[in-house]
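Aim 2, interim progress. The first record below pairs a target sequence with its structure tokens.
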Amino acid sequence: MQRTYKFRLYPTPKEQENIHFALERCRLLYNRLLAERIAAYKQTGQSLSYYEQKATLPERKKHIAELKNVHSQVLQNVVERLDKAYQAFFRRVKNGEKAGFPRFKPESRYNSFTYPQSGFSIEGKRLVLSKIGEVRIRLHRQLQGTVKTCTIMVKNRNYYACFSCEVESIPLPVSEKQIGIDLGVSHLAVTSDGKKIESPKFLRKSEEKLKQKQRAVSKKKRGSNRRRKAVRELARLHEKVANQRKDYAHKESRKLVNEYGFIAFEDLNIQEMVKNHHLAKSIADSGWNELVQFVTYKAESAGRQVVQVNPYHTSQQCSNCGEIVPKSLAVRVHQCSCGYIADRDENAAINILKLALQNVS
């Protein structure tokens, strides 16, 4: 399995300068390679391949001296990034999705570079990076498995190292317990056995502070130092909210995976759902996608099973007799002519579990 471990870096001013130098060289190279691909397609009708562009790197170094101060494999990874962007573009075109052609990167949109195989090592409390130096790193937990890549990332003036590792899965003791989960807004999730996972609403709690920070940004003159400072403060607050949501999802997903051997979720099209302007903010604040993702990868490692099912009619159908009982979103209690009465979301969670078991069987 692939796992990523993220650690905070504390570079000196000189090391910060080296990191930003490498970032800028990678960004400029990315934009240059993208321009060459576009020009080649316009002239010949065929784009350049990954290997064709990768082969030009030695020649580029002869003419651009700055590239010699960036590790060779970091530059190769820039070519790979662009190629992946093209592959994703063609995949979306093939699937009939919104295409999104690869874009030229401004400074604000290029914030990381990767050592794919070598050029980095951990020595005590230092991360040794080729062409950058020995950067102090806070190893708050032990790396597991075999380290494959190291990505250096800059976010809101903080520096991070992300290690992608191949780890062995660690199965948990077998559990026969099964559960269906209905995702919601008032509660993050309601389970088929009647439990409710509260939605902490971190965005709503920080909304007033966010409004103040946003007003401060809008009042500052564009391009001024004060505006840049206000933008940083706003970004840090948004990052804090995102980290709170992520931490909560990690904790709740761990509880679910530890207890249940079979977990069923509804397969929601969240991108379409957030187009509803009445519920968009609440849906985004709930963090449904993070919860499902975290449960899925934890379950894979623990030997558990996660299944997603089409949620069509799961809220309307009676879990006791199967009859369709139409009700609006305002109606929170399911009442059927068969006499069955239950919480609307709990009834939906039972239907989700039944559907998942049918699909598996």
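The second target in this work package is listed in the same format:
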Amino acid sequence: MENLNIALLLMIVGMATVFAILLIVIYLGKGLIALVNKYAPEEVVPAKQATNAPAAVPGNIMAAISAAVTVVTQGKGKVAKVEKI
């Protein structure tokens, strides 16, 4: 019976230690993220200006997209706009 008590005590101490170390890692990580965001913020990249119009989608591809949307939505869906990302 004494061995069982020692085993349970070791298990509880081990689990508490692991839990404490995980909490330390989490809060150190959050602190590091806050520190980096404060002193080295991400650079703002200016948006690209559209100098040329986007290329039109060929008719056969547009028909295939429309047909796929019609089949998937059972005729309730409608393609409003298609653009290349």
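The longest helix spans residues 2-39. This observation will shape the mutagenesis plan for the next reporting period.
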